[in-house]
Amino acid sequence: MPEPEKAQAFDPAVELSNGMRQLQRQDEYLTPDYQLRLYQESMGQLLESLAILGGDPERQFLTDLCWSNGLPCAGDVRLYDWQKSGYGIVEPVLFANRTGAIISGHVWATKQGPAKRPLIVITGGSIQATEQMYWWAAQTLAKAGYVVLTTDPQNQGRSDTFGEGADAGEGVPPQFSGNTFYDGTVDALDFMLSTPEKPFCPVLARSGNSHCEKQSRRAKAGLNTAFNPYWQLVDTQRIGLAGHSYGAAGVSYVGQQDARVKAIVAWDNLCNPLGAPSPCQAGFQAPTPVLHVPALGISNDYAGGPIPQPNAKSQASFELSKAGVETGMIVIRGGTHFEYSYLPLSAFSATHRGIDLAAWYTTAWFDKFLKSDPSAESRLLTSRWRQDATDATLDPAGKGNMFSSSTRSRLDLRLKNGARWICEDLRQGCVGLVDADGVSGDYSFLDISTRPESTPQ
């Protein structure tokens, strides 16, 4: 771990440049065409939510902040109609979690691809973080050959606010106790590993109560999903977790605790499940994890506040390095907490290219540790994000270098040749970074997601 360094002196010009970057994403959705579609889709989502509540009285998500799935809660409407457009396949799913709350989600994959594929479970953030906000990641990963689950965490979107019976209040509200983002991650993983021979049955609630009967009853009635609809595609030995915000804390902890998990990506922010520094938040359960699973954090620059210490974001990553675990922390210049959750409203500011950088490193990380893909190494060692052409046109002051200018980005990897490679400042560059990463042109998650399956890669 590098020696602590003093914070950089405040530079108004740098601060202004970073602040202006946070207005970039709104140029995507403040167009007449996007706004028209957003309102059209939002009205359809509202009517669909009302129809669900009317047709299934046992569902109770009307008290959720984003129950209507409309306007800023709609996510990126460019990603709707994914299967209809021939981009891939997706199935809606419903299942009861360990408290008896009904969880709403989707499973993503492609028609083309290997017979068996790695599995990724995505855990969203808290308060205003519907699953639609993470479809960018689900679709990008599905196109890369993964089976992916996105869900509305309990008390968000179309997932129930409360559990059942004596467990109705367990973990509610989720922001206080964190149960949703720890237990919910495990419940989602359990669901994705269910099969026709072994239908999903949630584990016991923390109270010791079982809500398996509710899941079984609703599945028999055709209301809940009995098992993962794409179970045949899942390679149960190759499982990864990704999460955002409180969900990042959840996957940081569960990923080190659950023996089934082989790789972790945490979007703002990777935390240390063993305690300080940068500890995971409350809500965890025994046994205490052992740091052994490769974990990548992707975070964002300061946003108008005090300039942090250069290594402020990397404390959990340093702890993993000390344990000999491959890790990293990528910090987006001028980025915000909403780089990873697409909310089409100016109040939730974000950069234009941050989401592409996140998609790039997320895919490459899982490709390295779940697929042993030989091309993943060059994609992780790439220098492209130090000289991104698109970002340079948007922010000439940054000259296309997307790594934070105040908080360091790092990687600690074991290379194919067996050597350990550590770079403590990706913005400045390190020996071993490569220009030839095997991907031509500017990278765009949207281009990947919205490419018909019949189109050559």
Automatic annotation (TrEMBL):
The protein's Enzyme Commission number: 3.4.-.-
Keyword Hydrolase appears in the UniProt entry: yes
Assigned keywords, A-Z: Hydrolase
UniProt-recorded Gene Ontology molecular function terms: hydrolase activity
Superkingdom of the source species: Bacteria
SUPFAM superfamilies to which the protein is assigned, alphabetical: alpha/beta-Hydrolases
Annotated coiled-coil segments of the chain: none
Name of this protein: Alpha/beta hydrolase family protein
